[in-house]
Every structure is written in structure tokens, then in C-alpha cells.
């Protein structure tokens, strides 16, 4: 087979597959029928970090060519094709006074990818995850049928297995989603520096009651009494009268700069990451309130540098993201301590609070604390440190986010996701021959 090498955003585990790029939805079924015994995987914009959108030796259908957007109904619902990116969608809907109900930290994800990973944003404590705002979708399942699926029916089991199901139940062809009306395209943002982890977590809890959007960036190099010192940003969409006179309240012109250059030796290493963390923390104001920020500054700052993942060099990066229930809060500090002690500083470390979750058997968000860290893959001893942390997370009833994963051991999966049997039952029903497959699914014993 001649094919293309595909990797996730972390660039850690490339594999070769035959890539098909349908120009319209009706072509997708043909690619499923002609896929060989290694089956077919679905891919959006490849922003999952690990091997979720890869299929070594098989077929990968790249959905980014099917990106139609329907009209917005009065109640803010609209139907879009599975390959449309949030970037395209926002350019269409923000000038009309609407925003996506949940935005991840980048616009460069597709609607299909957002549903398949049940993506969360800075407002999970208020609004839940992507799956909470999907009215219905059309799914091409492995048996070749196109099924209409919704949370209240038809086929709510298939709906739940697909939301967060990592593309293992079929191809999301089209989805009807709910947008949220916004008074302007700017946010009023409070920024506060905190001296330690306890203060960070307390401030995030306090902020929940007052702000729709809330997140903490943690200085991953601080230790001892400074462990967990952070910059907290919390915000809400600004009323139109908070803008300067004459300002178009729904203007949306996201800025994007040049692409990051290839860095054969890797520009991000423990020394540059340490220097960045220190400078970033000191540069933030101790407290600044009601600052007007654009959607792209507040939600998608990383999109300003295209292909920034290349700064880690050819060996790439590992993102480790976990969530623990409140009873396991101590694991947040313990994980930060272990990473500092292992000499594994993270370029970007984020803590957020999740509200109620658990939409589907493989959906990541669940009530508690989530911590995400970005680590150079070549960090000495990293696999052992992360294996140990996975076990600690599982012991306290937490889990790892599969959209970021490239290395979890399969025996921990049913401990972290105890409803896994629901996914297996649905797959057996709609894909009895196991035609939908991914590298992640094979690694974790799911297909
Ligand atoms: C800078 C950055 C910031 C991020 N921030 C966040 C964040 O704040 N919150 C968060 O939750 N995630 C975040 N992510 C992760 C990202 O949102 C998810 O990985 C998302 O799924 C990527 O979408 P994609 O279109 O690139 O999907 P891909 O990476 O291409 O695929 C991801 C999974 O979705 C499946 N899939 C894709 N399209 C379809 C389809 N049409 N039908 C069925 N299955 C499909 C694939 O098979 C695969 O299993 C971030 C990623 C990056 C790079």
C-alpha cells in the first residue's frame, strides 16, 4: 500500500494509512465499503494529540472537505457537516451575534472531532461539554447504515456511545447543534495572580459563581511554598455598551501570525520552558479587572502561531490531561510535585474545574478538577513518571483524556471508564464486523 504518514498534534506516533478526502457526504459510504481488513478511521483536523485519528495500514477518511454550514434558526440551532472547522463556523456565526456553546483552546478542530471527543471549554462548570449542545446527528455506522441519532432518541445509546466515543462508532456526517447568543464579540476579563495551589483552587471555586468562563495557567516550574502559583483568567461576554462608541459589537477578525519554523533540535526544552514559565508569571498583573479581550485572545491564543507543535522538535510532545473527583483533589498538587521533581517542566499547564459530566461511556469530563500539562516527549524518565501518575489518578476514581493520550496502558481503561461495556455493546450492534478502527482503539483493546 502507498500511503501517507499521519500523526496527532503531539507528533509522537506517526503511522501510514491510505487517506481519502471525500468532497461530499455521499462519497463517504464508498470509502467504508472499499476499506480493506484494517478498516477505516475518521479524521478531522488532527488536533487530538495522540493516535486517535490514525489507522496504521488501513484507510483514513479526512472529513475536512465536507464543511457545509446551514442557516441559523431563530432559536440558535443550525445544521453543519462533520468536517466543518470551528474557525469556519465562528467566522460565519459571530458576526450574526452567536457563539459556539463550548469552545476548546483552538478553533482548528472540526465539529465531528468536537463531538467524538466530547470537547470541553472554560465554561464546563456552567454549560457542560459539546455533547450537551448537540440536538442530533447523522452517523454512518460500520454496517453501512446511516442512522439519525439524538440524546432523547432515536437511539440514545448510540448517541451516548458516540459523544466522546473517539470516532469508534462511525462517521458523523452532519450534526444539528445549539449556539448561544452573545451581546458582543468581546469579553470582560479579570486576571489575578495567585501565590500557591490552595489559593488557586479556592479562587477557581469562588469564580464559578460569578463567571461563565474560568481557567488557571499554572507555573509548572514553581515548587515548595510556590507550588501551584498561577494566573487565573475569568470572564464573560461584554455587553455592547462596554465597547467604545462606533465599535462593531460583533466584529470577528481573528489574528494569525506566521507558522512556527521546523526546529530540528527542539526549541522547547527544560531550560527554555523554565525561563518561559518564570517570565510569563512575572509579566501578568497581580490583579486586573474588566479588561476587554477579543474572542481569539481569550479563547484561542495559541492559534496565533500556526504549527507551534513543531517547536518541540521531531520527537514531539506528550500532553497528559487528567480529571479527578473532589475527593482526589490532592492529586493535582501531587502530580505537579512529581513532574517538578522529575525535571519535567511543562510549557503550558492548565487547571480547570469541571461541573457534572459523564455523558457517554467514554466521555472524559466528569465533576472535579482537571489538570493538563504539555511535556517534551524526550524528557528523561517521562514514561515511568506518567505511568505512575495514571495509576494514582485511577486509584482516586479519576481518568485520562483520550483525545490527548498516546500512551495509556489498556488495563487502566476499564478502571477509568467503568461504563466501557456500553460502548462495546453498541459497537457490536452497529459494526458487527469491526470495520471502524483506529490506532488508539487497537492500542487500548477497543477494536
Ligand atoms: C492547541 C489545542 C488546544 C486544545 N484545547 C482543548 C480544550 O480546551 N478542550 C478539549 O476538550 N480539547 C482540546 N483540544 C483537543 C481537541 O479539541 C480535540 O482533540 C478535537 O477532537 C480535535 O478535533 P479534530 O477535528 O482535530 O479531530 P481529530 O484529532 O482529527 O480526531 C479526533 C477524534 O475524533 C474522531 N473524529 C473526527 N472527525 C470525526 C467525524 N466526522 N465523525 C466521527 N469521529 C470523528 C477521530 O476518529 C478521532 O478519534 C485541544 C487541542 C489543541 C491542539
Main sheet summary: 8 strands, antiparallel
Note the gap between the termini. 22 Å
Mean pLDDT reading: 95
| Heteromolecules bound | flavin-adenine dinucleotide
Backbone CA Rg: 21 Å
Number of distinct helices = 13
Strand line-up across the major sheet:
13-10-12-11-15-16-14-17
Q: So, CATH architecture of the largest domain? A: 3-Layer(aba) Sandwich
Number of strands: 17
User: What quaternary form is this?
Assistant: single chain
From the 3D structure, determine the CATH topology of the largest domain.
Vanillyl-alcohol Oxidase, Chain A, domain 3
Following the backbone from N to C, one meets helices and strands in this order, namely EEHEEEHEHHEEHEEHEEHEHEHEEHEHHH
Q: Give the CATH level 1 class of the largest domain.
A: Alpha Beta
Uncertain residue segments = none
The structure class reads: alpha+beta
| Percent in strands | 15-25%
Helix content: 10-25%
- As for the number of domains, it is 2
The best one-word shape is: globular
Amino acid at each position: 500500500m502507498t500511503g501517507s504518514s499521519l500523526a496527532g498534534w503531539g507528533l509522537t506516533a506517526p503511522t501510514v494509512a491510505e487517506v481519502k478526502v471525500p468532497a461530499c457526504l455521499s462519497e463517504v459510504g464508498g470509502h467504508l465499503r472499499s476499506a480493506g481488513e484494517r478498516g477505516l478511521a475518521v479524521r478531522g483536523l488532527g488536533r487530538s494529540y495522540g493516535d486517535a485519528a490514525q489507522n496504521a495500514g488501513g484507510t483514513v477518511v479526512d472529513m475536512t472537505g465536507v464543511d457545509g454550514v446551514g442557516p441559523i434558526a431563530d432559536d440558535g440551532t443550525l445544521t453543519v457537516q462533520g468536517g466543518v472547522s470551528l474557525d469556519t463556523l465562528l467566522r460565519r456565526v459571530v458576526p450574526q451575534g452567536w457563539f459556539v456553546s463550548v469552545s476548546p483552546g483552538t478553533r482548528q478542530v472540526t465539529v465531528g472531532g468536537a463531538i467524538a471527543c466530547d470537547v470541553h471549554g472554560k465554561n464546563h462548570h456552567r454549560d457542560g461539554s459539546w455533547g450537551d449542545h448537540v440536538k442530533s446527528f447523522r452517523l454512518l455506522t460500520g454496517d453501512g447504515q446511516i442512522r439519525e441519532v439524538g440524546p432523547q432518541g432515536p437511539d440514545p445509546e448510540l448517541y451516548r456511545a458516540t459523544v466522546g466515543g473517539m470516532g469508534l462508532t462511525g462517521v458523523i456526517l452532519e450534526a444539528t447543534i445549539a449556539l448561544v447568543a452573545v451581546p458582543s464579540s468581546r469579553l470582560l476579563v479579570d486576571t489575578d495572580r495567585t501565590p500557591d495551589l490552595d489559593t488557586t483552587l479556592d479562587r477557581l471555586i469562588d469564580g464559578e459563581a460569578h463567571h461563565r468562563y474560568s481557567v488557571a495557567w499554572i507555573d509548572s516550574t514553581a515548587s515548595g511554598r510556590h507550588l501551584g502559583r498561577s494566573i487565573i483568567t475569568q470572564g464573560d461576554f461584554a455587553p455592547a455598551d462596554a465597547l467604545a462608541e462606533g465599535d462593531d459589537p460583533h466584529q470577528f477578525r481573528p489574528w494569525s501570525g506566521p507558522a512556527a519554523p521546523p526546529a530540528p533540535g527542539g526549541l522547547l526544552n527544560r531550560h527554555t520552558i523554565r525561563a518561559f514559565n518564570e517570565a510569563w508569571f512575572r509579566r501578568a498583573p497581580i490583579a486586573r479587572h474588566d479588561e476587554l479581550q477579543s474572542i481569539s485572545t481569550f479563547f484561542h491564543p495559541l492559534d496565533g502561531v500556526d504549527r507551534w507543535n513543531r517547536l518541540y522538535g521531531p520527537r514531539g510532545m506528550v500532553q497528559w490531561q487528567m480529571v479527578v473527583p473532589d475527593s482526589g483533589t490532592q492529586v493535582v498538587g501531587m502530580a505537579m510535585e512529581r513532574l517538578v521533581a522529575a525535571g519535567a517542566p511543562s510549557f503550558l499547564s492548565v487547571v480547570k474545574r469541571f461541573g457534572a459530566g459523564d455523558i457517554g461511556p467514554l466521555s472524559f469530563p466528569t465533576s472535579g478538577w482537571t489538570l493538563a500539562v504539555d511535556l517534551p516527549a524526550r524528557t528523561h524518565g517521562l514514561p515511568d513518571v506518567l505511568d505512575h501518575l495514571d495509576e494514582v489518578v485511577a486509584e482516586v476514581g479519576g481518568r485520562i483524556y483520550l483525545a490527548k493520550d498516546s500512551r495509556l496502558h489498556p488495563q487502566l481503561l476499564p478502571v477509568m471508564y467503568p461504563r466501557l461495556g456500553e460502548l462495546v455493546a453498541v459497537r457490536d450492534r452497529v459494526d458487527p464486523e469491526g470495520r471502524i478502527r483506529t490506532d488508539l482503539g487497537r492500542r487500548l483493546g477497543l477494536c
